[in-house]
TrEMBL record:
CDD domains per UniProt: YXKO-related
Name of the protein: Bifunctional NAD(P)H-hydrate repair enzyme
Keyword terms, alphabetized: ATP-binding, Isomerase, Lyase, Metal-binding, Multifunctional enzyme, NAD, NADP, Nucleotide-binding, Potassium
Binding site for (6S)-NADPHX: 57-61, 130-136, 161, 263, 328, 379, 444
Functional summary from the UniProt entry: Bifunctional enzyme that catalyzes the epimerization of the S- and R-forms of NAD(P)HX and the dehydration of the S-form of NAD(P)HX at the expense of ADP, which is converted to AMP. This allows the repair of both epimers of NAD(P)HX, a damaged form of NAD(P)H that is a result of enzymatic or heat-dependent hydration. Catalyzes the epimerization of the S- and R-forms of NAD(P)HX, a damaged form of NAD(P)H that is a result of enzymatic or heat-dependent hydration. This is a prerequisite for the S-specific NAD(P)H-hydrate dehydratase to allow the repair of both epimers of NAD(P)HX.
Length: 508
């Protein structure tokens, strides 16, 4: 699904109005009607509802929601914020209707002392600002935002299109923003919802289709996307009936050192569960029995060194479809030397994680020797060590994308919505996963999955989109059965089978 900027959303709006065609008033009624229906599905008409409206079209949506809920018998109070700006045309049209039909339900608020006493159980609808916000909320309006946030534990707050105060495409650091439990976003996600610095604001996002013109949506290029199951179904390749283990590639995993062999075992198991035909693990001598017992289906090659890997470059030949390197590897100088030699001889896209990334941040010239199309999988700290720090998440996203283009690599930045930056400048946010996956070993599992998919001849882009999706999906299945607290990285591997079956049912 494409993620459009606020300016593109305005264009989509205008395109729909002239090409469907539909009046802008009717489009607002359609959009706000979806919000009203969403609220009616979840709350009974016994529920007092307070709708805070600004004077633009977001406020107009609030007025339409008020009208529709009042018609359904909900006790609605429309709190209209009077801050001097000129009201939009569609706001004015719906204000007149509300004023004619339900004059007693309107309350004008002109300063913070006008903030109403909220009865227990009241639901707050935030329709103050949406995509038209172009500066921080200030003065007494900011006071209203704080008043609403002060009662967020006692009252459910539902934001219309966006939490007010949040910029759609830029940082809102240190600005007053509504803390919503739910955001009912029209037709698309906004980029701002997906970045960690805004974690407190949008709550659970529900994207409500409002019938914006499909032609505009298909024809307009977007830089940012969010992954979905339909995309995965175009990527996934079912296994062929005459397949043998050679069909699905031989992967080499270079991982482990004394004390961190668990990382190597997790990555190996995940690689095989992702479907690799064959797997060889290169481990230090201390890891031989651990790996053979930990994953009997993997073959094992042992290093000259007892405690860490120093001679893996001698292993890396054309037999291997791909290489995954990094989990539990260690960062000794001898390991780094072997990594450099490996890059001189092995030219296919590989997966680079954990200590292999840390080696790259100590010897950054090696970044230029990575095979084009390789996949880097940093978490935010590793990313910062590799590419430097930024002042906010939007800048970091820019930096991420710039580096992927410059180095012609796929770089994924791990997070609630893992961001996958591609060499052509596109960025995909992954939609699956949960906080239960913020646990040791989860990244090693991802490295294994990506290596396993590359071994099967998925292109790097296909492997990364599908791999990150499946990793999160398996994590979601694990947390549903075991809880976010009790699930471990090994459980993500255990649920890979169910993730495949449920995303790609065999009869499809
Ligand atoms: N997506 C769609 O197709 C539809 C969206 N709808 C809704 O429309 C809003 C966007 O409406 P818009 O009127 O463009 O913007 P807002 O309501 O967010 O803001 C209104 C004006 O407020 C001014 N502004 C901006 N920032 C501030 C601020 N910090 N303090 C005070 N005032 C501010 C600004 O006007 P200026 O003249 O002052 O520049 C804004 O223009 C969208 O979010 C949806 O809710 C439609 O209902 C249907 C289709
Ligand atoms: K809003």
């Amino acid at each position: 699904m494409k993620i459009f900027t606020a300016a593109q959303i305005r264009e989509a709006d205008a395109y729909t109005i002239s090409n469907e065609p539909i009046s802008s008033t009717s489009l607002m009624e359609r959009a706000a009607g979806r919000c009203a229906a969403w609220i009616e599905d979840r709350y009974t008409p016994a529920q007092p509802i307070y709708i805070f409206c600004g004077k633009g079209n977001n406020g107009g949506d609030g007025l339409v929601i008020a009208l529709q809920l009042l018609q359904q018998g909900y006790p609605v109070t429309a709190c209209l914020l009077e801050y001097g700006s000129r009201a939009s045309e569609d706001y004015t049209i719906h204000f007149r209707q509300l004023h004619q039909q339900y004059p007693g339900r309107i309350r004008e608020i002109a300063d913070v002392t006008g903030f109403p006493e909220l009865p227990p159980g009241a639901v707050i609808i935030d329709a103050i600002f949406g995509t038209g916000l172009n500066k921080p909320i200030e003065g007494w309006l900011a006071g209203i935002v704080h008043k609403i946030n002060d009662v967020k534990r006692q009252h459910t707050i539902i934001a219309v299109d966006m939490p007010s105060g949040l910029m759609a495409d830029g940082s809102s650091r240190n600005m007053p923003v509504i803390h919503a439990q739910y955001t009912l976003s029209f037709q698309f996600y906004k980029l701002a919802f997906l970045l960690p610095e805004n974690a407190a604001f949008a709550g659970q996002v529900h994207v409500l289709p409002i019938g914006l013109h499909p032609e505009y949506i298909t024809q307009t290029p977007a830089r940012y996307h969010i992954t979905d199951i339909d995309m995965m179904r175009t990527i996934y390749q079912p296994r062929q009936p005459f397949a043998h283990k050679g069909t699905y590639g031989h992967a080499l995993l270079i991982a482990g050192s004394r004390g961190t062999m668990g990382a190597a075992v997790l990555a190996a198991r995940a690689c095989l569960r992702a479907g690799a035909g064959l797997l060889t693990c290169h481990v230090p001598q201390c890891g031989y029995e651990i790996m053979q017992l930990g994953e009997p289906a993997a073959m094992c090659s042992t290093d000259e060194q007892p405690d860490f890997n120093t001679h893996f470059h001698e292993q890396a030949d054309a037999r291997y479809k791909t290489i995954g390197i990094g989990p539990g590897l260690g960062t000794s100088a001898a390991t780094a030397r072997s990594f450099e030699k490996l890059l001189a001889v092995y030219k296919r896209p590989m997966v680079i994680d954990a200590d292999a990334l840390n080696i790259l941040s100590v010897y950054p010239y090696l970044l230029y020797q990575l095979p084009a199309g390789s996949i880097l999988t940093p978490h935010p700290k590793e990313f910062e060590r590799l590419f430097g720090s930024t002042t906010n998440d939007f800048e970091r996203l820019e930096l991420l994308s710039r580096q992927a283009v410059r180095l012609q690599l796929y770089i994924l930045l791990k997070g609630r919505y893992t961001a996958i930056a591609c060499p052509d400048g596109a960025v995909y946010f992954n939609a699956t996963g949960n906080p239960g996956m913020a646990t040791g070993g989860s990244g090693d599992v991802l490295t294994g999955i990506l290596t396993g998919l590359l071994a099967q001849d998925y292109s790097p882009k296909a492997a990364i989109l599908l791999g990150v999706w499946l990793h999160g999906y398996a994590g979601d299945l694990a947390s549903a059965e075991l809880s976010q607290e009790a699930m471990t990285a090994g459980d993500i591997i255990n649920f890979m089978g169910k993730a495949f079956l449920s995303c790609f049912p065999p009869e499809m």
